[in-house]
Amino acid sequence: MNRSETYIEDFPVQGFQQDLINWYQEHQRDLPWRLNQDPYRVWVSEIMLQQTRVDTVIPYFNRFLSLFPTLTDLAEADEEKVLKAWEGLGYYSRVRNLQTAVREVAEQYGGTIPDTADEISKLKGVGPYTAGAILSIAYGVPEPAVDGNVMRVLSRILLIYEDIGKAKTRMLFEDAVRKLISKEDPSSFNQALMELGALICTPKSPACLICPVQEHCRAFDQGRQKELPVKEKKIKIRHVDMAALILRNQEGKYLIHKRPKEGLLANLWEFPNVPVQKRGVSEKEDLKVFIEAEWGISAAVGDQVSNIEHVFSHLKWNIQLFEGQCSHEAMDAADLKWVTLEEMESYPFPVSHQKIIKLAKEVTA
DNA sequence: AAGGCGGGGGG
DNA sequence: CCCCCAGCCTT
């Protein structure tokens, strides 16, 4: 007997399914990826929705699908164009993994996205949640799709005090969903749990008074909905001081650099920059030395233009921004280019460096 | 099991 | 300010 049976025992599964799905049929939002059940569209939407709000995703989804309407279109596209379509959405490895995976589907499965848990879970970037979401929504397979919403909702309904920050806890909720899920309509059931989490059973102040499954909710019954879910404190973020340079040559072009293919902001473009040990000591010299050593470019580094703060989930950059000139001829390499502001628009930049582009336009205007 | 990996909206 | 969002990968 696994632990979820303790939670499902004496739970009115049928009535819960009915009330949940009926509410969903009536109140579900009109979202672009609900237009049909095309597995490719479902897949793209689920990747975009990882750690990202619905309202943020909508315009990206529409643009992405118009650029890459089919799995084949995405498989054959240039990675740079794909990253550009993802620019600003964050977690860029999602889309690099997605393209790797659709290429694998094109080659290994003749372009048809697999419909079994074993096969689909092997695809790059498809974890337990995404596998369950695609299988249930696109193929009607009764697999759990447990995300943050589902853990919050079910922790309240079933009164589960396990820490949802722990990896093992997700499996507990998956076991619960396997016992709760509607075999007749797994798609609606899974989406209904998430929709309920988004619209009613929200993190801070759940709208229990209008909740369609209020009568099935153990937390509401005991007035404990605000205690759930239980989640560990998150760690403090690290601070990193950096110096960056808006470098122009005599043609008025700007130097940009492509980041390495792994790690933070992989394969995105940036302005030349170096981490600095101590603020206010030798940023200008650090930049000059770095650019000379790295690319053999001799630059005259001028005044500080601005200061940029950019916060990630795990670290914070404080970037001192300088401008500089050099007489270097426009010699491009794969990861180093001299471009005009107009040409720059076709390269994918992280938001932190989009801020620099904006300043470059002001400074040189 | 823990940490890296983006960015933005809402309380 | 902090939280947290339709998570996954690597170590």
UniProtKB/TrEMBL annotation:
One of its GO terms (biological process) is base-excision repair. It comes from the Bacteria. GO terms for molecular function: 4 iron, 4 sulfur cluster binding; 8-oxo-7,8-dihydroguanine DNA N-glycosylase activity; adenine/guanine mispair binding; metal ion binding; oxidized purine DNA binding; purine-specific mismatch base pair DNA N-glycosylase activity. Its EC number is 3.2.2.31. Its cofactor is [4Fe-4S] cluster. Signal peptide: none annotated. Residues 48-199 form the HhH-GPD domain. Keywords: 4Fe-4S, DNA damage, DNA repair, DNA-binding, Glycosidase, Hydrolase, Iron, Iron-sulfur, Metal-binding. Binds 1 [4Fe-4S] cluster. InterPro entries: A/G_AdeGlyc_MutY, DNA_glycosylase, Endonuclease3_FeS-loop_motif, Endouclease-III_FeS-bd_BS, HhH-GPD_domain, HhH_base_excis_C, HhH_motif, MIG/MutY. It catalyses: Hydrolyzes free adenine bases from 7,8-dihydro-8-oxoguanine:adenine mismatched double-stranded DNA, leaving an apurinic site. PROSITE patterns: ENDONUCLEASE_III_1 (PS00764). PANTHER family: ADENINE DNA GLYCOSYLASE (PTHR42944). Base excision repair (BER) glycosylase that initiates repair of A:oxoG to C:G by removing the inappropriately paired adenine base from the DNA backbone, generating an abasic site product. 8-oxoguanine (oxoG) is a genotoxic DNA lesion resulting from oxidation of guanine; this residue is misread by replicative DNA polymerases, that insert adenine instead of cytosine opposite the oxidized damaged base. Shows a powerful dicrimination of A versus C, since it does not cleave cytosine in oxoG:C pairs. Belongs to the Nth/MutY family. This is Adenine DNA glycosylase. It comes from Fictibacillus marinisediminis.
